[in-house]
Predict the structure.
Amino acid sequence: MKLALLHPGEMGVTVGVAAQDSGHSVSWLSEGRSDATVKRAMAAGFSSCVSLLELLAQSEGVISVCPPNAAVAVAQSVVAAGFDGIYLDANAVAPHTARQIHALLGDRYVDGGIIGPPALRAGSTRLYLSGSQASTTATWFAGGLLEAITIEGAPGAASALKMCYAAYTKGTSAMLLAIRALAESEEITGPLLDEWAISQKGLADRSERAAIGTAPKAWRFVGEMEEIAATFAAARLPDGFHGAAAEIYRRMADLKSVQSPSLAGVLDRLRAKR
Ligand SMILES: NC(=O)c1ccc[n+]([C@@H]2O[C@H](COP(=O)([O-])OP(=O)(O)OC[C@H]3O[C@@H](n4cnc5c(N)ncnc54)[C@H](OP(=O)(O)O)[C@@H]3O)[C@@H](O)[C@H]2O)c1
């Protein structure tokens, strides 16, 4: 298959490499992309195109891996360009956003949700797929490091799985950071860490790791938390947890470009008066 990748971000590039390692060719769109994306795409050996029309004219399938809040716009641009092949959206979006993209593309749409870090070693990362073309699309990744798993259900099922998974992982990280910020504000960090050392072993380390691990990606997690909150709301469940998590990550958004983020830097941002 000739596949188009929109776009080769940290995760996206490994999705493209998995397709390449499965015997498919991968092209990408250089127009408008940052130096970081250009470097990743070139290192992976993807073929570069300078316009969306040129890219889609030579492609039989499209893989969308981009910030969640850009997923619908990327799908709209592909539809507007007249693309008529299979379209895989592998972004962290709410099931109703997935259904919005389904409405644009019909049965050519495959819903995907990625769980795990960028796929750099076997067994680390899974791409869940749902929709009528899910099994066909799983073959795009049959020989690479990304494990494609088809699940039952209409478009929206794979996204719902991703929402539930990230609701816990990224939601609890945000909650821990909020708790550390509150302890600072109330000047009881020492006693809290002492109590955690007795009865909640591991939480101190986990909060440090949450700060350092989420800081560079917090800007992107805002959209993902909003998608999760909307998923809870659509199911008539409380959406406030993830609305708050979105705000935590929003306050950390400028850490994208900080070289060595720290817990102290994160707590400063969370507590800054706004
Ligand atoms: N990274 C992970 O560990 C991970 C894990 C599970 C799922 N995912 C999912 O994978 C998707 C992307 O993750 P990633 O790690 O590849 O992200 P990333 O490293 O931030 O890369 C995002 C890519 O999208 C491009 N982009 C930025 N703004 C855009 C916009 N407004 N419209 C279209 N494209 C835009 C970026 O280009 P520029 O370089 O020009 O900004 C970059 O090539 C997300 O939906 C995320 O939830 C990621």
